[in-house]
Amino acid sequence: MVLESAGHWLQTKHNNMAWEQRARGGRYYTRSRRVGGRVVREYVGGGALGQRAAEADAEARRERQRLAAIWTARRARLEDAGELSRRFFDAVERHARGELVLAGYRQHHRGEWRRSREHNADHVGE
After folding, report:
1. Does residue 2 belong to any structural domain of this protein?
2. DSSP state for residue 8 in the 8-state scheme
3. Residue 21 within a domain
4. Each residue's pLDDT tens digit in the chain (126 positions)?
5. Residue 67: inside a domain, yes or no?
6. N or C: which terminus of the chain carries fewer CB neighbours within 10 A?
């Protein structure tokens, strides 16, 4: 599971198929993880030790998934809020533009607003 901007520790991947049956008859728990771009297999142990490690890894995996879901929900809320902000800004900008035009201003080369010459000529004698 990889989540953008949630931190390096959320990008850790472990193998779900970690229990191995060895030739000598025992079951052993191992982990696979990436170190420097290479997959490294780490022997943990068998029996109760392996079982505790497997449970701890499963709990850590569930916690990573829970945090990833939280980040996904937060990101969705922020994107929704950003969309509402953009809509509000566009509405305010349209309103301000209309008010400036009605007041006799024009936009100079898509930049600053200037009083129209025609409007200035109407008020010269005042």
Report:
1. no
2. G
3. yes
4. 344 444 444 444 544 468 888 777 788 899 888 899 999 988 888 889 989 999 999 999 999 999 999 999 999 999 999 999 999 999 999 999 999 999 999 988 888 999 988 755 555 555
5. yes
6. C
List C-alpha distances in Å: 91 to 8, 38, 84, 97, 116. Answer: 40, 52, 11, 10, 24
Structural domain including 15 reads: 8-122
Asked, for residue 64, whether it belongs to a domain, the answer is: yes
Give the whole-angstrom CA distance, residue 125 versus residue 123.
Answer: 6
Tally of structural domains, the chain: 1
Dig out the tokens for 68 from the structure: 């990833």
DSSP state of 69: H
